[in-house]
Amino acid sequence: MPRDLAPDLARAPDLARETMQGPSSASMTARAVLHCERRDGVDRLTRLRSEGPYVLRPTHPKAPEPWTRGTSAAARVSVSAGTAGPLGGDRLSLEVRVGPGAVLVLNEISATLALPGTGGHASEAVFSVRVDDGATLIWMPEPVIAARGCDHRQSITVALAGTARFYLREELIVGRHREAPGNIAQRVRVTRDGVPVYDQDLRSGPRHPGWDSPSVSAGAKAVGTMVVVDPGSGLGRDRSDLIDANTVSVGVDDDVVVASAVAADNLALAAALDEALHRLGPAWRPGR
Questions:
Q1: What whole-number distance in Å separates Cα of residue 246 and Cα of residue 224?
Q2: Which of 228, 253, 257, 262 has the smallest number of CB atoms closer than 10 Å to its CB?
Q3: pLDDT score recorded for residue 17
Q4: What is the pLDDT of residue 270?
Q5: Other C-beta atoms within 10 Å of 63: how many?
Q6: What are phi and psi of 16, to 5 degrees?
Q7: Residue 259's closest CA among 271, 247, 246, 267?
Q8: What is the pTM of this model?
Q9: Nearest 5°: phi and psi at 29?
């Protein structure tokens, strides 16, 4: 274990909520950091700092993974929840860096449940990701659930080098089972060598007029997106797959594919995105 890793692990799950001069006395501010580098031909976790709800743990394969085919060579990290939330007023961030040539699989143990706070303030989660030349990041977070009364804002910014490989699958659910929708605003921005390849701003819930219109979710409680960047693959060339009435997969560049789906619940959403992934071919199909 690298010497700079142990002190960060020691901070992991038991940090108390920090008192802030701001929205609520119960609010938390937390910043977690994950760095992966290839050293001597091996993908190593060179920094693993857990804080607040983001508890980072090196793991083995959790489930079938796209592209990796169950290989043990990639570095793997699972995020588990160290605290409840995010709650209204929380300010959370996670920084991820994958160094040149390294391969990192990042997943989560359970879904994220965004909850209202006592003061009616918004919660915020910021993810900053950098993937260097020749590196690969396979990112498979569990769904984000916007519970009734919450106001959650999430920002995902991904900076890819020209030869970086990237997979992201994200799912949003507005309201728990038989529960009124919460409010969530999410922006996902992916750039390659500084040039945007994907930029989406999605807002759902009663505070965002038109969120349930046919042009957004058509009243569906579950919305999901899959982004694949595979340099030189031709994966997106002339691709336009209408998988069903609620799911489409399109090529936005010769080697970039975006699939989007809406569904009544998370099980139907997962099945739709699984089918979109399956159609990309053997290299991207999940395999054990």
A1: 11
A2: 253
A3: 43
A4: 93
A5: 8
A6: -75, 160
A7: 247
A8: 0.87
A9: -120, 130
Q: What are phi and psi of 277, to 5 degrees?
A: -65, -40
In angstroms, what is the C-alpha Rg of the chain?
Answer: 19
* Range list of β-strands (E), 40-120: 42-49, 54-58, 75-81, 91-98, 103-108, 112-114
Cα distance between residue 218 and residue 262, in whole Å: 8
Q: Are 46 and 77 in contact (CB under 8 A)?
A: no
DSSP secondary-structure letter at 65?
Answer: B
Per residue in 126-179, pLDDT (tens digit) is 999 999 999 999 999 999 999 999 999 999 999 999 999 999 999 999 999 888
d(CA 227, CA 166): 8
pLDDT of 69 reads: 63
> What is the C-alpha separation between 283 and 257, in angstroms, rounded?
14
Sequence ranges of the domains in the chain: 6-14+33-284
Greatest pairwise CA separation for the chain in angstroms: 53
Q: Are strands 195-204 and 42-49 parallel, antiparallel or unpaired?
A: unpaired
Block residue for tokens 């997969």: 249
